[in-house]
Write a structure and sequence with these properties.
- This protein is mainly α and 341 residues long.
- It has 21 helices and no strands.
- Helices cover 77% and strands 0% of the residues.
Length: 341
Amino acid sequence: MKAQSTSLILFCCGLVMGALIERQVPVRIKPVVPEKTLMKKTAGARKAAGAEDLVRSEPKLTIDNFAAALDSALREPSPARRRELLFRIGQATALEDLPRALALLARRREPEAASLGDDLLGRWAEVDPPTAMAYVQDLAGSAKREQSLRVVLAEWAAQDAAAAMGWVTRLPTGPEKRRAWDTVFDTLAAQAPDQALTLLASLGTTADKNRLRARVLARWAEGDPAAAASAAAKMKGLPSSVYADLAFQWASSDPRAALAWARGLPSAQARNRSLERVVEAWASVDVQAAAAFARSQPPGQAQSAMLERVAKQWASADPSAALKWASALPTGPIRTGVLAA
């Protein structure tokens, strides 16, 4: 009897507890979302999408999505990832949207935005350089205009050197024209330096001609100093400093070949200056050999200049050894000059 009473009490307690739980934890039924509301939410999610989603979703990124994609990319914490996203944005931007995209980028202060602007401008110049240049000329005079001009002109020169040179020729004389010539011939020198020199010769006599020839030869010498030096030796009217600079560049990698070339130069001034620079570059790779060559030269101003260049190179690497060497030179003006160097 007692057991039955206990079972009845427990059964009643269970009913009461179940009722309490149902009241405090009601069943939640997910409401049905109307189709219009769902479409609005989807559109909102698209606006908040990252740069990668926006680029992936559009074969060509529209100008309406450009700003959102740019903001998202610039917020990316990883520099490598940020560069990748910005590159993809640049490639996905439609050509017809480039002017508006460039205008948006011009208002940004981030360095990455400026780099993206250069990339877009380069794409434009690749397709239509005259129109891209017209856009640049409408920019207010500033460092940005100067950089933009270089970007367009380099692309133009790479595609159609004659047209690019024609455009520069029409510029008024001044710093902008000088920088424009530098950009054109830097581009040509990187592609085909011998052809760049031929085109430069076609300009006739200009104030910048020797300066530009020196510029092309210097860039040529970075990759092939022997060829650049050979071309220079056939030219007339180059300043002796151009030969000397070529000799230094060549001697940094092959001092004995540069030495033989410098000795064969017809102009005494160009020859002496070039030999000085050969010895200077030589001393940076083999100071003992450079010093021995300088000591073997006939006494005079040329030898003194060579010895002083050796002393400076040696002193920068081993001051005590350089002093000991200079002190052992014969007493006289040369030794005095070398010690003073």
